[in-house]
Amino acid sequence: MLKGSTLGFIGGGNMAEAIIKGLLAGGVAAADVMVAEPVAARREYLHGTYGIDVCADNGRVAAAADALVMAVKPQVFRGMVAALGPAGLDGKLLISIMAGITTADMEEVCGSAARVIRVMPNTPALVLEGASTLCRGRNATDDDLFFATGIFDLVGTTCVVEEKLMDAVTGVSGCGPAYVFLFMEALSDAGVKNGLPRDVATRLAAQTVLGAARLLLETGDHPGVLKEKVTSPGGSTIAGIASLERDAFRGAVMAAVDAATARSAELGKK
Ligand SMILES: NC(=O)C1=CN([C@@H]2O[C@H](COP(=O)(O)OP(=O)(O)OC[C@H]3O[C@@H](n4cnc5c(N)ncnc54)[C@H](O)[C@@H]3O)[C@@H](O)[C@H]2O)C=CC1
Ligand SMILES: O=C(O)[C@@H]1CCC=N1
């Protein structure tokens, strides 16, 4: 799948694990994946669970890998590269999943000739249902973009946008799973409040979100059209929708995406 290339991860946290699990499920060999991770318990977990080579030495992974996924928090990125020495990254394709770090930031820190692909994935990659959006830095080639897209295609859907849209992408799909979990938790709680057993309420909440998402994607209809098909005149759905509108549900979602988009832009600042 990686065609003999070794993919190294710098940072073995939640998002790295989601991508790794997806890659292995998608047919990538464990021997083609390496991780550098400073936390011993995390190293043991990743090695024990996935059978991949995990070590504490960023330099060793950088030296062995053909392409590196930068999967540390944006706040630790500059210190991490300074400790490694930018020369350790020479010639490697650098794939950054860090929110807010631009390709220009990457080139400034890792070297002006660095080949950089910036990606905003999301955690449903863990179950091969990720949404990943890519853009490329000025030195990255068509082949680099093709290679990186191939990785993220294995863990869900991909699209390519202009870099100026990446913070908005972060606010929508990077952070989006958390909003949806909050919504499903509320839906489940509301079911319990109205007498449903917890397991039934949670299963109904999750399947409702999954089913509605598939209906939207498979019909290609506007969400408003699909909403109308649920909503009988004088029925129960319109009573629920009127309540959500009174509480400015859609305005609250838009404000959340605005806040996350603005925070993504801030995260890249030194
Ligand atoms: N969690 C998510 O849903 C998403 C996260 N991202 C981005 O992915 C990146 C990682 O996020 P998470 O996985 O959520 O964070 P995390 O905190 O779970 O993972 C970061 C990992 O980096 C390790 N680390 C810390 N310092 C290091 C160093 N100097 N060298 C190597 N590893 C080091 C930590 O021990 C930790 O395991 C962030 O930049 C975030 O913006 C992007 C899309 C979605
Ligand atoms: O919360 C964050 O900053 C990261 C980026 C997108 C999702 N998680």
Automatic annotation (TrEMBL):
GO terms for cellular component: cytoplasm. It is found in: Cytoplasm. Belongs to the pyrroline-5-carboxylate reductase family. Catalyzes the reduction of 1-pyrroline-5-carboxylate (PCA) to L-proline. NADP(+) binds at I10, G11, G12, G13, N14, M15, A71, V72, K73, P74. This is Pyrroline-5-carboxylate reductase. Residues 163-267 form the Pyrroline-5-carboxylate reductase dimerisation domain. NADPH binds at N58. PROSITE patterns: P5CR. HAMAP family: P5C_reductase. It comes from Geobacter sulfurreducens (strain ATCC 51573 / DSM 12127 / PCA). Pfam families: F420_oxidored, P5CR_dimer. Transmembrane segments: none annotated. It comes from the Bacteria. The keyword Metal-binding does not apply. Its EC number is 1.5.1.2.
